[in-house]
Design brief:
This protein is of the alpha/beta class. Strands 3, 15, 16, 17, 18, 19, 20 and 21 form an eight-stranded mixed β-sheet that branches. Strands 4-5-6-7-8-11-13-14 form an eight-stranded parallel barrel, surrounded by seven helices. The protein has eleven helices and 21 strands.
Length: 391
């Protein structure tokens, strides 16, 4: 029987009221943050990107471990502020910020990462109405991308940030508007397991940031170079090596200290902090045989865990790590785990070697702490929401 968070899986299922459910382990989250801090230079600040897992209890846990929180909506901003984290340590990014959200950010005193000239003008209007100077960072769309990234967020046309060539004019405009300029925000990609690719991108980010700092309306106080640190999901993938990444960051800290004394270097991490600390659990409703293939039909599926299902077929599908949590040993077989939805895309494991399961057994999708419930189409076909618990 799988133990998670110090509890047997069957007892955990009973505690949360049945299946399906997500469970997150605070001890694993704390251990990941501690591992990161032990490996990285002391001058690097670790911020948690709430979008990875916005469950309030998880955010509260990380507010006590991280140096700051990064949000992408007014809803996430409210969750961050409710933790008691100082507004000075909260930043607000996103390509589409509504006027009301910008006004809330100004009133709360959080750092706004401006992503367009229009956003900048709207922010200035909110400041004028409230009589407060907004704290501003300029998010840059760099003219390079993170190699071998699971998702590229820089290099070429992007909805995120301001093209690097346009940045000097907007930095000048920030000064003209009298806003409180604090720093720059760059994010080139995510989910990367190559330390050399990450180090190369961090060096490029620093070079670009220091060039732009020369024309900024005030001294650079903070530099957010994104994250991109990945976790292994699929067979053959290896955990990210932190030692070479730490060496790179030490070099970047030295460059920043020379060019902008007192400026803070920030990593914005989401998936890396929480993905491996979470599981998704559903129950087998029926064991079914079709043309010689075993299907385990469960009470959970893509409506709860879109990423594990393959994102509605929009990418080449690979199996997440899946186990039968109450049958850790014994006879094994090739089986597919499917959900209750009337679509062939509702697939949690495709012809995977699993313990031989029957109705009532518990299917566990590992690596499920990030981009799970909040990133899934929970209203699709009207099935109940799963529970969430932090242990």
């Amino acid at each position: 029987m799988l133990l998670f968070g110090g509890m047997r899986l069957d007892r955990l299922a009973a505690r949360v009221g049945g299946t399906p459910f997500y469970a997150y382990d605070r001890a694993r989250i704390a251990a990941r943050v501690a591992q990161l801090r032990a490996a990285l230079p002391a001058g690097v600040q670790v911020h948690y990107a709430i979008k990875a897992n916005p469950m309030p209890a998880v955010v509260q846990c990380l507010a006590g471990l991280a140096d700051g929180l990064d949000v992408a909506s007014a809803g996430e901003m409210a969750v961050a502020l409710d933790t008691g984290m100082a507004p000075q340590q909260i930043s607000f990014a996103g390509p589409g910020k509504r006027a009301a959200e910008l006004a809330q950010a100004v009133a709360a005193g959080v750092l706004v990462s401006v992503e367009s000239g229009n956003q900048l003008e709207q922010l200035a209007q909110a400041c004028e109405r409230q009589g407060l100077p907004a704290r501003v960072a300029l998010r840059i769309n760099p003219d390079f991308a993170l190699r071998r990234a699971g998702m590229r967020m820089g290099g070429g046309a992007q909805p995120f940030g301001v093209d690097a060539q346009q940045a000097p004019a907007l930095l000048a405009r920030i000064g003209q508007l009298g806003l409180a300029f604090e720093g720059l925000h760059l994010f080139a990609g995510s989910q990367n397991l190559s330390a050399s690719a990450l180090a190369e991108t961090q060096e490029s980010c620093m070079t670009l940031a220091l060039r732009l700092a020369e024309v900024a309306p005030a001294p650079l106080r903070s530099l957010n170079i994104g994250g991109g640190l990945g976790v292994p999901y699929f067979p053959g993938e290896q955990p990210l090596a932190l030692a070479p990444l730490a060496d790179s960051l030490q070099r970047q800290l030295g460059r920043l200290a020379l060019a902008a004394p007192g400026a803070r270097l920030q990593l914005e991490l989401g998936r890396y902090l929480v993905a491996e600390a979470g599981i998704y659990v559903c129950r087998v409703l029926e064991r079914k045989l079709s043309h010689g293939q075993v299907f385990l039909i469960t009470d959970g599926g893509l409506h709860h865990h879109l990423a594990a299902s393959g994102n509605f077929g929009q990418r080449v599908r690979k199996n997440y790590p899946v186990i039968i949590g109450n049958r850790m040993h014994g006879e094994r077989e090739i089986a597919s785990v499917v959900g209750p939805l009337c679509t062939p895309l509702d697939l949690l494991a495709d012809q995977m070697m699993l313990a031989r399961a029957q109705a009532g057994d518990l299917v566990v999708v590992l690596q499920s702490g990030a981009y799970g419930l909040s990133a899934s189409p929970t209203a699709f076909l009207g099935h109940p929401l799963p529970a969430e618990v932090l242990l």
